Amino acid sequence: MGESEQRLPVKANGVERADFRVRATEPGPATLTVTAIGATAGDGMELKLPVHPLGVDERFARAGFVRRRAVQTLEVAADAQPETIKCKLNLSPTAGAAFLPALRYLFGYPYGCVEQTMSRFLPDVIIRRWLRKLGGRLDWLEQELDRVIRDGLQRLYNMQQEDGGWGWWQHDGSAPEMTAYVLYGLYATQEAGYKVDADVLSRAEQALARHVSESDISRANKVYALWCLSHGATNCYDDLVDAYQQRGSLSTYSRALLTLALQRAAARGYPEADRMAALSLGELKALAQTDNKGTRWTSRTAERYCWYDSDAETTAFAVQALALNDPDDPMLQPAVRWLMSTMKGNNWGSTKTSAIVMCSLSDYVRRRAEQHPPHFVAQVTLNGRQIATREYNAANAFTSGAEIEISPQMLKTGANRLEVIKSGTGDLHYAVSLDYFSRAQQVEAKEQGIQVLRQYFLLQPEEDRVEGFRYVPVELPARLRPGQQLECKLTVTAHARLYYLLVEDPIPAGCEVVPMPDRSYYYELWDYWYCAREVRDEKVAFFIRECSPGTHTFKYALRVVLPGTYHVMPPVAYGMYRPDVRGRGASKQLRVTPSAVVGPQVASRPGPLQLAWASLWQ
What we know:
618 residues, alpha+beta, five-stranded antiparallel beta sheet
């Protein structure tokens, strides 16, 4: 838009500014090239910028098991933006091959809390171990895994608390469930042949043992900790017996973990452990539910939306207990079929659940592939037209999972019939996903258990006797000017107690986050109740380990930098481990007019609270 060239007189060692107006016409990567040509010299630079679509993100994901034929209907709305349509179909001759897309999902997850750091490499070490036993190999996994494990272990060492445990983030308090999960992962990593710092491991074992002995520990946390400690050398058998005697009050999730811990105790020869393990397994099997998708175990937690509220994890742990007792148990295959049917594209809804499912199924998948190697041809048709054919056999059972990209041009508006046909013997799992943005100039708010409201205020300087001046939030004007500072206020209303909540707020493209706002602004508005905040190029993210029912606010400051008209995508809030519980705010539009920098230019040293805040978040 406007002129593409400007002439500027620039003195030696001087700085001048040139503004060019551009408009993003379609989503995707945009490349900006700028060159400066002088009388005797020149220079240039190229900048790649992501352009995000404006609209509502529509997602469809289904998975299942193909006996002879499976059909799915893919609906493409009339207002779908064609350039944003992404459709993928994964075909896998074993559940193990279906793990491969999930491994890439874990590798590429954008955040790095304690759980996600552990989940990034935990299933990889287990899957690589049984791949090697079967003579299989994944080149990309072999090339990346050692680095990911080395970096991940170091990050976990750095995030270990003084008491030896772990919280969700580095500055979060130690929690029994997070400590247990990391310790379990360290045991598995060590068993796979990697070196784990002995001091870190010892301190973690002591911290978890202390959690078990605490009088106020919940039964769910205690059983989870005992399951973890059963993988190591810590003797916690008396506590395990006590949990067994009170098993009637445990959730199904905890009863599955109790069964696994008792099976390990029996393998070590503890008295009566084999009898208790057998009884616990029998009671667990009686809690199974079967439908047309297969067999599952529901979590049945006393408190919803918590760390243990996951049917997929409960079923995965039950499958692991069944497989340890009898690899040919007839309940196993329908339970695995149910788990594969709950796969959402390339994952099971969260990093933790995805890692747990893969770890729990690994031994069963290996044995199943050895005993029932595939020998079939899979054909895929879309709206009656054949688009892919794949052949599977024993030689490629673990590395032949196919990811088929369906071109947007192959999809029509409305209903699309996708059909997968199997000819031959063996297992065939599939997972299909369809993502696109529908067109909308204004994205409306949406509530699914969480309500999100975003407001912008102009930070207006006023005189103050102590500070000289202070910022006061006032109503936003119709048009802003470069140099002004804004307060972004997010109001999140939770209708129930939520755990491990993530709030993400996109940043207006013409603004930047102020890391330490001027003077007394942050003295009044900084809130320490959430456990972490991350500032990215395109958004600000807040992490809350426990969110009580009611209304909560999050605030941060922005500085207006560039003139233009900016569409700001909606803020979202959702459970990190229950993404079905979520809320979305409305989109916004900000207009910034060209102007000189405005606002007071105060040269002063930061106060002690500002310095403390800056030190905390560096």
